[in-house]
Amino acid sequence: MSVDKLFANRPRTILAPMAGYTDYAFRSICRNYGVGLTVTEMVSSKALTMDNELSKKMLYREGNDVPSFCQIFGHEPSVMADSVLLPEVQAYEGVDINMGCPVKKIVSSGDGSALLENPRLASECISAVKKALGDKPLSVKFRLGVTDSSGAVDFAKMCRDSGADFITVHFRTRKQMYSGVADYTLLPDVAKVGLPVFANGDVTTREDYLRLLDMGAYGVAVGRGAVGKPYVFAELEGNTYQFDLLNTVTTHIELLLKTFSDRVVCNEMKKHVSAYLKGKRNGKQTAIAVNAAHTTQEILQLVTDFTNR
What we know:
By secondary structure, this protein is of the alpha/beta class. The chain has an 8-stranded parallel barrel, surrounded by 4 helices. The protein contains 16 helices and 9 strands.
């Protein structure tokens, strides 16, 4: 499937995958605000092939979450190829390979942005996964580089030549982690490689979106800018929307309770609710109380009290 066909009549926006945040419930909520494509939290290809229960549970999704890609990480081409043949992954419309995660635990295992330092192995991984996927689209997400951006254009060319259908580039280096500002200086050069490029990093407004399109981006991927603000996707498109805090939190909890225990959902929701409350008048006090909650009912009562005030 071509990228144009994938995004036909859809906004060229992606909910960027974020470990611990882009669970199936949050992806479903973002759908209500018009996101074009969602991507799962990154899942270990090796864990999938070893029938890891939690990894497979992470690939559950709601019926409205279409199209969506499964994001895998790893560094063994044959294992990665085997993982995308599993039914849980095949259920998705495409696959994204994570070659950008800067977290030490991931990098030290040779995964994520460690592959920026080994383009030959990265190429083998992309080629193997693409061969296994067949007609399904494959994307690759990576950063500008490890400490600088000198190899970014060449890495994009490698992705193109290895079979990727499009790329998502986080315009920060691994060294930057999530600090500083995204540097889009090289976006026009990366776009000239010939692959559709989704620009990622500090995209929070429609003005950002339009500016990056003018610079050559095919679309944008929004990560942290969507946390607590799933409606950002409506804003990017210039669409009107309604956001009801209590209804959103209630929906989020109800969806997560489909597959996880109340204790797990309670702990997972603390960061989401804190994000929803950020910047709101008297929100900090409620967020502190939410972080001390022991059940989802406690959280719902606290949010109810907050909205009533």
